[in-house]
Specification:
This protein is of the alpha+beta class. It folds into three domains: 233 residues, PPM-type phosphatase domain (Phosphatase 2c, domain 1, 4-Layer Sandwich); 60 residues; 64 residues. The radius of gyration is 27 Å and the shape is globular. The strands form two sheets. It has a six-stranded antiparallel sheet. Strands 2, 3, 4, 5, 6 and 9 form a six-stranded antiparallel sheet that branches. The structure holds calcium ion. Calcium ion binds next to helix 6. It holds the Pfam family PP2C. This is PPM-type phosphatase domain-containing protein. Keywords: Hydrolase, Membrane, Transmembrane, Transmembrane helix.
């Protein structure tokens, strides 16, 4: 991406409906000067703390404070290395704090940190908070969940029953803090195109809002409104956990800047390369020559050439098989340039219909329970949404119905009584 591309951000965090503390933390850092951007790029972090009482809150707060501090002052030119080191530094800081006080022992946090720089989008990641990229109708999960569910699936083990899955799916297998060292996954660089939208979130959101909904909402609404609506959806669906989201949308290229070209995915068909193909071709020619010699009764020469070329062919096959397997294994480990999961975002029409239904149910609850809603504003938004839908302008209808949901959720008993962040 280029410095000239603006980045529009929306962030939102909420305690949810059932927790006493918000143990999620987040931070965003947009570079103010080109020199600063060339050195390290924009930075976004979501961390979801754990450990009970105020301990999780402390762990996630240390992560989102330590990472920018370390990352932004580093002179290392490679963003992947800098980001990994910053996350490792946060791990050491949380671990050190945990060992100082018995109450803080084993405190930990997930951490997903994204940079948008001239090298592209790079994510450093530990735990089950997620980073997504939304491009047109496609939503790609760029991070691997370090959860029992995902680790078992990677090793081809499945839960034996739905009860097992429900009990264990949220157990995380890696976090910052509990151990003196941690393995950090660094993903990317992923190419960044104009209008690409990046979304980081804690599991309080991703457990309750499906990828295809997240993709559609992030595509249809400005980042600030999309962030609000996503958190509202998590709360409307029960809000069992804290939920946090950061949305960053990359702007258009200025007219005088040439778009950069970067290959989207590695091309598997080219994975063996021309050298191997030429090798196979040469050996095949020798094999054909040997068989021809046998056909014209030149037995000794024919047997020698055929045997040698057969052995060479076998050796080439074994070597190419090994190389392909190593390549696939290393790609599986690093997922270089590939998302871990992909979904198709909902079209505007089904998204509108889903939101209209949610809005309708919410409106009924608000009227029955006497929420202090500004009904005039709400009804205007609903009328505008219905009229846009009648003329098949569903993207516009989505914007209006999300306004109506926001006007209701502003007065939801939980929101109305919570201190504003
Ligand atoms: Ca959580």
């Amino acid at each position: 991406m280029f410095w000239e591309q603006n980045v529009f951000i929306g962030t939102e965090t909420d305690i949810g409906l059932r927790r006493k503390n918000n143990e999620d933390s987040h931070s965003t850092h947009l570079c103010l000067t080109e020199a600063e951007w060339r050195r390290h790029g924009h930075l976004f972090i979501v961390a979801d703390g754990m450990g009970g009482h105020a301990v999780g809150e402390l762990a996630s707060r240390i992560a989102v404070d330590t990472i920018p501090h370390t990352f932004l002052k580093s002179n290392e030119r490679d963003v992947r290395t800098t980001l990994r080191e910053a996350v490792l530094c946060a791990n050491s800081a949380i671990h050190a704090r945990g060992t100082q006080n018995e109450d803080f022992l084993h405190m930990g946090t997930t951490c997903t940190a994204l940079t948008l720089s001239r090298q592209g989008a790079i994510v450093a990641h530990v735990g089950d908070s997620r980073a997504y990229r939304i491009r047109r109708d496609r939503i790609d999960q760029l991070t691997f969940d370090h959860s029992l569910e995902w680790e078992l699936e990677r090793n081809h083990h499945k839960f034996s029953s739905a009860i097992d899955l429900a009990q264990h799916k949220n157990i995380i297998t890696r976090s910052l803090g509990p151990e003196p060292t941690v393995q950090v996954d660094v993903e990317g660089p992923y190419p960044v195109l104009p209008n690409d939208t990046f979304l980081l979130c804690s599991d309080g959101l991703s457990n309750l809002v499906a990828d295809e909904e997240m993709g559609a909402i992030a595509r249809e609404l400005p980042p600030e409104n999309a962030a609000k609506l996503l958190i509202h959806l998590a709360n409307i669906r029960g809000g069992p956990d804290n939920s946090t989201v950061i949305i960053a949308r990359v702007g258009e290229l200025p007219a005088n800047v040439e778009p950069e070209f970067l290959p989207e995915e590695p091309d598997d068909q080219q994975s063996l390369g021309w050298a191997w193909l030429i090798g196979f071709w040469v050996v095949a020619m020798f094999l054909a020559g040997g068989l021809s010699l046998l056909a014209i009764q030149r037995t000794i020469a024919g047997v020698a050439v055929t045997a040698c070329s057969s052995i060479a062919l076998l050796a080439l096959l074994v070597a190419s098989f090994r190389q392909t397997r190593q390549k696939l294994q290393s790609e599986f480990r690093s997922h270089a340039g590939r998302p871990h999961r992909t979904a198709v975002a909902l079209d505007s029409k089904p998204l509108f219909e889903r939101l209209a239904e949610i809005s309708h149910d919410l409106q009924r609850a608000a009227r029955e329970d006497g929420w202090n809603v500004n009904w005039k504003l709400h009804d205007q938004a609903i009328q505008a949404a219905e009229s846009a839908a009648e003329s098949l302008r569903y993207a516009k209808a989505v914007r209006h119905v999300s306004r109506a949901i926001d006007s209701l959720m502003q007065e939801h008993p939980h929101t109305a009584s919570s201190p504003k962040p």
